[in-house]
Design a protein that fits this description.
There is one protein chain. The N and C termini lie far apart (45 Å). The longest helix has 28 residues. The protein is mainly α. It is built from three helices and no strands.
Length: 81
């Protein structure tokens, strides 16, 4: 059996987490924009439907706009590299 003599180090773990976050910064931000756009605009569409009684159309349009906005930012971020 192989025994690992290295001890757990919080400082080493924190440094590794910071490096990973800085390397994935732009991509992580674009993914948050995608999810946030879908949730926000879909939610606004849902609220519009509840207020106006227009059925699922506000939700569908809100989700579609959220997807378009999110993917636009994702593509813009991906082409910068």
């Amino acid at each position: 059996m192989v025994k690992n003599n290295r001890r757990f180090s919080f400082s080493r773990s924190a440094k590794s987490l910071q490096e990973n976050a800085s390397n994935a910064g732009a991509a992580a931000g674009a993914s948050y924009t995608l999810v946030g756009g879908i949730l926000l605009l879909g939610g606004l569409g849902y609220l519009l439907d509840k207020w106006q009684g227009t059925g699922p159309w506000g939700l569908i349009i809100g989700l579609a706009l959220g997807i378009v906005v999110g993917f636009y930012d994702l593509v813009k971020t991906a082409t910068k590299r």
